[in-house]
Design a protein that fits this description.
Shape: globular
Number of helices: 19
Membrane topology: Multi-pass membrane protein
InterPro entries: EmrB-like, MFS, MFS_dom, MFS_trans_sf
CATH topology of the largest domain: Growth Hormone, Chain: A
Protein name: DHA2 family efflux MFS transporter permease subunit
CATH architecture of the largest domain: Up-down Bundle
Radius of gyration: 21 Å
Subcellular location: Cell membrane
Distance between the termini: 26 Å
Number of domains: 3
Helix content: over 70%
Order of helices and strands: HHHHHHHHHHHHHHHHHHH
Structural class: mainly alpha
Mean pLDDT: 79
Number of strands: 0
Low-confidence stretches: 1-6, 465-475
Keywords: Cell membrane, Membrane, Transmembrane, Transmembrane helix, Transport
Length: about 475
């Protein structure tokens, strides 16, 4: 059982603000970058259609380290790890701003990811251990509000900074927030540790991490890296071999990183696989839309950022409507129909061109934002709804890993598709570039729709226990 203590009044008031700052830093960073990619590519003398590595490096690093975050916090204490996480994130931001090549920028994003991977899980862990369960819903509601504001402010703020300052400021803005965060952590965060010294599954971590890394590099090899198909196939086979080796080993040891027994719960298995395939489509959305608007349609960075506002605003509104919709119709119907709608709306972006009215584009993005938000909420809830208390923590960690991994694979797939469809033409041929984007959106939409076949396997009565599972729903 975790160690616990009564917080003094200052710490009780300050702790939620500290965690909220960390949530805001990470959610802002996840969206502010997308609008700046064309300007960054121009400054670094790179093709804007091959900048997905900047996004993938961060997401993949986060996915790799999430499984170890709980053990690291127990081993070294929440105070030191949370402080180190914000410090690493801020250092990575500074290195990003100082980068003068794409390779250096990608390396700096890895450093950022090392901090980001620990901020959210350890922040949740501190709140979970420091407050009684009766206060948990109120505290979690408070600290997630800044996380919801990040996607709303990020694209607009990023576009404005790129157009009127330079792209370096999208990283420099993290520095003063990081300084305040580090001070607040040292003042308000308690140093909590687990009483039981659990043994970390190091070999399982290496196998699982190697699988994710090899598969992602293989997908990148089809796009930005331009690897020969033989190497791509070898990377894919290597990644699959590591993944199979992990699951075979996990089935015969006592404390694996993620136990295969989790998949004996049918809703969890369907939710995990549905998450993986549905997010391949929706994960490409924040990457593709700003590029489409700037590279293919000629929007300025600030215009592109402002155009993303309806998507983020509709997502926030839809999140408040998700629970009654799920309670009324049930998970199977909601997820099956909503996944099809998500795929159709993604494919419909392939109809956007220079003659598309601006108001229609904004409406399409708003509908996409609402559908995407409902999709994430329903997928995450159905994945955890039937897990018992013993498996809830491990299941939630695996869901977080799959979420980050599938988003990075979605960006990698989108980059590979864009590269494939525009391979034989120069980037100055704007008509053909637009066609490449249109074909990419159609393909990504079809990929997302296929996930509906997975969610249709849910039983009809799943979803009648939403009230009992409220605390398990993750945003």
């Amino acid at each position: 059982m975790p160690d616990s203590r009564v917080l003094d009044s200052d710490a009780a008031r300050g702790l939620p603000w500290v965690v909220a700052i960390a949530f805001f830093m990470q959610s802002l960073d996840g969206t502010i970058l997308n609008t700046a990619l064309p300007a960054m590519a121009n400054d670094l003398s790179e093709d804007p259609l091959r900048m997905q590595g900047v996004i993938i490096a961060y997401m993949l690093t986060v996915a790799l380290l999430i499984p170890a975050s709980g053990w690291i916090a127990d081993r070294f204490g929440t105070k030191k790890i949370f402080f180190g996480a914000i410090l690493l994130f801020s250092l990575g931001s500074l290195l990003c701003a100082l980068s003068n090549s794409l390779d250096m920028l990608i390396g700096a994003r890895v450093v950022q990811g090392l901090g980001g991977a620990l901020m959210l899980p350890v922040g949740r862990l501190v709140v979970l251990r420091a407050y009684p369960r009766s206060e948990l819903v109120r505290i979690m509601g408070f600290i997630t509000i800044p996380g919801l504001l990040g996607p709303l402010l990020g694209p607009t703020l990023g576009g404005w900074m790129v157009q009127y300052l330079t792209w370096h400021w999208i990283f420099l803005i993290n520095l003063p927030v990081g300084v305040v965060g580090c001070y607040a952590v040292w003042k308000f965060i308690p140093d909590l540790r687990g009483k039981e010294k659990s043994r970390f599954d190091s070999l399982g971590f290496l196998l699982f991490g190697s699988a994710m890394l090899l598969i992602t590099i293989a997908m990148e090899g089809l796009g930005e890296l331009g690897l020969p198909h033989l190497r791509v196939m070898l990377l894919l086979f290597g990644g699959m071999a590591c993944l199979i080796a992990y699951w075979l080993r996990a089935g015969r040891i006592n404390n694996p990183l993620f136990s295969p027994s989790l998949f004996k719960t049918r809703t969890f298995a369907i939710g995990i696989f549905g998450n993986l395939f549905a997010r391949l489509g929706s994960g490409a959305l924040p990457f593709l839309v700003p590029l489409l608007l700037q590279v293919a349609l000629g929007y300025s960075p600030s215009q592109a950022g402002m155009s993303m506002l309806p998507l983020a605003a509709a997502a926030m509104i839809a999140k408040s409507l998700a629970r009654p919709i799920i309670e009324w119709f049930g998970y199977r119907l909601v997820l099956t129909i909503n996944t099809l709608a998500l795929g159709l709306m993604l494919a419909s972006m392939g109809l956007v061109g220079e003659q598309t009215p601006y108001w229609l584009l904004l409406c399409m993005l708003a509908i996409l934002g609402a559908i995407n938000s409902l999709q994430f909420t329903a997928m995450n809830a159905v994945t955890l709804i039937d897990l018992d208390d013993v498996n809830a923590s491990s299941g939630n960690s695996l869901l977080s890993v799959v979420g980050q991994l599938s988003l990075s694979l979605g960006v990698a797939c989108a980059g590979a598709l864009l590269g494939g469809f525009s391979a034989d033409v120069g980037s100055d041929d704007m008509t053909t570039v637009l066609q490449a984007f249109q074909l990419t959106f159609v393909t990504v939409g079809i990929m997302a729709m296929l996930a509906a076949t997975i969610f249709s396997q849910l039983s009809k009565d799943v979803g009648r226990r939403v009230k009992d599972s409220e605390d398990k729903i993750t945003s």
